[in-house]
């Protein structure tokens, strides 16, 4: 099996300069194998096809998880050891995989890894999360922050310093370093989620059997454009997929969620080695 990291980026009418910069960032790093640009846009883009990555034009918007699955299946067929699911609005320094790959190589019980993410301003993004309850998601979307501060602090695991390695039930799909062997067992993204909640669902399935860790020894910069808070259509899609998720896993009677979240909150932090 190749120890290189294959990468997939999903585009949907994404600015060309953003995709080009993302591919350039990846090429500055070692360990990178195939780079897949999976384009859900209606029209073929010859500029993307000329970037030297593997350009896959779907011709329709098949959804975020389904588009990544197109590339992940190729990684599985080609015997890749790791596959990175990555947003195009992320940048990072060269050498990041020189840290991540050896760490995952030496910890076979880790199925997925997420680095520390910061905004361009340097502020930390609180992407370590518990498995959500309906109240967690509805409160975040509908109520003022002053009324939900305590609930959100628990959901985003604020009791941890965000400077330590922790086992996180739900890691963000903006940058998911995935072990292909685990995907062969747990499955890929559930394509019933057009967009949103697919990362929660996959994290949960992986977390059942392996660790899914937050790894602050590496840092990425994430622009983080929350489309569902801007577009009414995307907000509706988010709510529909929330319902799909809770129909699948349980709304209020979800003993597994309570058990997993309790274990996550009770763990000891593992300080990064100097």
Q: What this model shows, in words?
A:
The protein contains ten helices and nine strands. Strands 1, 2, 3, 4, 5, 6, 7, 8 and 9 form a nine-stranded mixed beta sheet that branches. 38% of the residues are buried. 39% of the residues lie in helices and 22% in strands. Strand 1, helix 1 and strand 2 (32-39) form a beta-alpha-beta unit. The two termini are 31 Å apart. The mean pLDDT is 92. This is Glycosyltransferase family 2 protein.
Question: Helix and strand layout, with pairings?
Answer:
Blueprint: E1 2-11, H1 16-27, E2 32-39, H2 46-49, E3 54-57, H3 64-77, E4 80-86, E5 90-91, H4 96-105, E6 110-118, H5 134-142, H6 145-155, E7 166-167, E8 175-179, H7 180-186, H8 198-207, E9 211-222, H9 232-249, H10 255-266
Parallel strand pairs: 1-2, 1-4, 2-3, 6-9
Antiparallel strand pairs: 4-8, 5-9, 6-8, 7-9
Protein name: Glycosyltransferase family 2 protein
Pfam family, one: Glyco_tranf_2_3
Organism: Candidatus Aphodosoma intestinipullorum
Low-pLDDT sequence parts: none
Tell me the number of structural domains: 1
Summing up helix and strand content along with how strands pair, one would put the structural category as alpha/beta
Which CATH C-level class is it? Answer: Alpha Beta
How would you characterize the largest beta sheet?
9 strands, mixed
Number of strands: 9
CATH homologous superfamily classification: Spore Coat Polysaccharide Biosynthesis Protein SpsA, Chain A
Q: Which CATH architecture would you pick? A: Alpha-Beta Complex
**H and E order:** EHEHEHEEHEHHEEHHEHH
Protein name: Glycosyltransferase family 2 protein
Pfam family, one: Glyco_tranf_2_3
InterPro entries: Nucleotide-diphossugar_trans
């Amino acid at each position: 099996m190749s120890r290189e990291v294959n990468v997939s980026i999903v585009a949907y009418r994404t600015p060309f300069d953003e995709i080009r910069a993302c591919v350039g960032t990846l090429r500055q790093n070692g360990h990178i194998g195939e780079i897949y640009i999976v384009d859900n846009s209606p029209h073929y883009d010859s500029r993307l096809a000329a970037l030297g990555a593997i350009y896959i034009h779907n011709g329709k918007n098949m959804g975020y998880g389904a588009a990544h699955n197109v590339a992940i299946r190729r990684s599985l067929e080609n015997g890749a050891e790791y596959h990175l699911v990555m947003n195009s609005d992320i940048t990072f320094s060269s050498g990041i995989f020189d840290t991540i790959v050896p760490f995952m190589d030496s910890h076979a019980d880790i199925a997925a890894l997420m680095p520390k993410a910061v905004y361009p301003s340097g502020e930390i993004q609180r992407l370590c999360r518990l498995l959500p309850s309906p109240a967690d998601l509805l409160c975040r979307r509908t109520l003022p922050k002053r009324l939900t501060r305590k609930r959100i602090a628990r959901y985003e695991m604020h009791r941890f310093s965000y400077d330590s390695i922790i086992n996180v039930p739900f890691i963000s799909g903006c940058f998911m370093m995935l072990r292909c062997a685990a995907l062969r067992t747990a499955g890929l993204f559930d394509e019933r989620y057009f967009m949103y909640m697919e990362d929660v669902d996959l994290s949960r399935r992986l977390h059942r059997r392996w660790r899914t860790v937050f790894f602050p020894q590496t840092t990425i910069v994430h622009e983080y454009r929350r489309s569902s808070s801007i577009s009414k259509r995307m907000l509706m899609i988010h709510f529909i997929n929330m319902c799909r998720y809770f129909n699948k896993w349980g709304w209020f009677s979800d003993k597994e969620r309570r058990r997993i979240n309790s274990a996550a909150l009770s763990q000891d932090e593992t300080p990064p080695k100097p």
